[in-house]
């Protein structure tokens, strides 16, 4: 109903128009940005070379996290970003102790309501191992994304900035929730369990050759086409909260003319588990089998894996695992089998239980 007084009518009309404009503006307001914490550990993504054309022979882990963030101002468009320098190392120097420190920090951060996702910058040499370890011990459905680079930050064609942008966008996205720990490089989304480094230097070095990537990143959006169905993160039985050290597990590589020396040396050094990366389907050479049997008799858990890199390791295939009381690695690489065995040994030494874990995770 209009006011009889013209002035009052105009005031009422302006008020109505203002309310309508405010409502329309609110509808079109930019969505609230997620809060993403970048945990930096060093690596090539934080490396520098002698010149802009230096893509090999550079020095890793020279650039701090704040400089990494500042170099990609576009991050502010996809998330509220802050950074922490957890380590500053080349990833070949990553240790069990580093993993425990990193994982505990991730769990603390993800328990906070003001953290929606985590990005971890990491050297590529052991990135797949760190990713799988976190995949087994992170206790949150919030996204955790590992990212690295194949070229240093000073290179004329550095891949670090776009990889970092994509990883932050992915960690901020609702689509990544509950997908387990992810690896985002070269515009692709890979699962921590299955991804591996397949080339020494090219930009497409991270792949999942047989089982396939999870999806792509395009136009600042993630596109998922499949997901990891093996249990991970909140679904696992592993709790590292009170752990200060992981059991010693070592890898013995199979090759022509292999002997018992490596197995014996690892056992003398205190190994609680041995991963045998055998030839073919995890075959046991006649000269190394007695050493593995002796290691088992001394209490070590022996897991048969393969150096091939693809395929299922058949139980009771190239060895009578039931009789030997050995475990098989399923599709896990030797380096990832080592990680699972270390965590398994914090729970049990039963080979039946450990075999169940290898078929579960």
Automatic annotation (TrEMBL):
<keyword id="KW-0732">Signal</keyword>
<feature type="domain" description="Asparaginase/glutaminase C-terminal">
    <location>
        <begin position="248"/>
        <end position="358"/>
    </location>
</feature>
<feature type="active site">
    <location>
        <position position="44"/>
    </location>
</feature>
<dbReference type="InterPro" id="IPR006034">
    <property type="entry name" value="Asparaginase/glutaminase-like"/>
</dbReference>
<dbReference type="GO" id="GO:0004067">
    <property type="term" value="F:asparaginase activity"/>
</dbReference>
<dbReference type="InterPro" id="IPR027473">
    <property type="entry name" value="L-asparaginase_C"/>
</dbReference>
<dbReference type="Pfam" id="PF00710">
    <property type="entry name" value="Asparaginase"/>
</dbReference>
<dbReference type="InterPro" id="IPR004550">
    <property type="entry name" value="AsnASE_II"/>
</dbReference>
<feature type="active site">
    <location>
        <position position="124"/>
    </location>
</feature>
<dbReference type="InterPro" id="IPR037152">
    <property type="entry name" value="L-asparaginase_N_sf"/>
</dbReference>
<dbReference type="Pfam" id="PF17763">
    <property type="entry name" value="Asparaginase_C"/>
</dbReference>
<protein>
    <submittedName>
        <fullName>Type II asparaginase</fullName>
        <ecNumber>3.5.1.1</ecNumber>
    </submittedName>
</protein>
<comment type="similarity">
    <text>Belongs to the asparaginase 1 family.</text>
</comment>
<dbReference type="InterPro" id="IPR027474">
    <property type="entry name" value="L-asparaginase_N"/>
</dbReference>
<keyword id="KW-0378">Hydrolase</keyword>
<dbReference type="InterPro" id="IPR036152">
    <property type="entry name" value="Asp/glu_Ase-like_sf"/>
</dbReference>
<feature type="domain" description="L-asparaginase N-terminal">
    <location>
        <begin position="35"/>
        <end position="229"/>
    </location>
</feature>
<dbReference type="InterPro" id="IPR020827">
    <property type="entry name" value="Asparaginase/glutaminase_AS1"/>
</dbReference>
<dbReference type="InterPro" id="IPR027475">
    <property type="entry name" value="Asparaginase/glutaminase_AS2"/>
</dbReference>
<feature type="signal peptide">
    <location>
        <begin position="1"/>
        <end position="28"/>
    </location>
</feature>
<dbReference type="InterPro" id="IPR040919">
    <property type="entry name" value="Asparaginase_C"/>
</dbReference>
